[in-house]
Design a protein that fits this description.
Blueprint lengths: L6 E5 L6 H12 L2 E4 H9 L3 H25 L4 E4 L8 H10 E7 L2 H8 L13 H19 L2 E4 L5 H13 L9
Parallel strand pairs: 1-3, 1-4, 2-3, 4-5
Helix pairs in contact: 1-7, 2-3, 3-4, 5-6
């Protein structure tokens, strides 16, 4: 399958901008946009924190695997995935094989600034959210890099600037081999 002409899947830690950039990209390409976390919420009728509370992280991950498998099979989509999507081998496989995977990379400090007032992130409801983000970053960064076809560094710049960089990245020939 030619992944270049197909789907685009955005991965990265919470707060990096997967949903915002994903929506913009889908609009630009005239693709359908999906956010796997939103799809899970719509189907269960409850919030992510509630799923974590009732079913634990394991229950949530099982739901996520099913949704990722289903969504990645759709044609012409941009998918914003949940931050922990790469912790499951099945997801890494589905993403890599069915589209171009873009890792939106940012340092934990920046992500903490962006997420610290957000109560909808169950993994950050801890005494020291920055330490938790740093721990998640250290655990997941290698998995994101192993799953991604390309990496886009997200800094303090405005979203519009990041979006321009994203467009440049996907329009460059052979972008699949960049940053590997």
């Amino acid at each position: 399958m030619d992944t270049m002409a197909g789907n685009f899947f955005l991965i990265g830690l919470m707060g990096v901008g997967k949903t915002t950039l994903g929506r913009q990209l889908a609009q630009h390409l005239h693709y359908d946009f999906y956010d796997s976390d939103h799809v899970i919420c719509e189907r269960t009728g409850v919030s992510i924190p509630t799923i974590f509370e009732l079913e634990g992280e394991q229950g949530f991950r099982a739901r996520e695997i099913a949704v990722i498998d289903e969504l990645t099979r759709l044609p012409r989509i941009v998918l914003a995935s949940g931050g922990g999507v790469v912790t499951q081998e099945a997801n890494r496989q589905s993403l890599r094989d069915r589209g171009t995977v873009i890792y939106l990379h940012a340092q934990p400090e920046l992500l903490w600034e962006r997420t610290r007032y957000d109560r909808n992130r169950p993994l950050l409801q801890v005494a020291d959210p920055l330490a938790k983000l740093t721990e998640l970053y250290q655990a997941r960064d290698p998995l994101y890099r192993a799953t991604a076809h390309c990496v886009l560094d997200v800094g303090h710049q405005r979203c519009q600037h990041t979006f321009k960089q994203l467009l440049q990245l996907i329009s460059t020939p052979h972008h699949a081999h960049a940053h590997r």
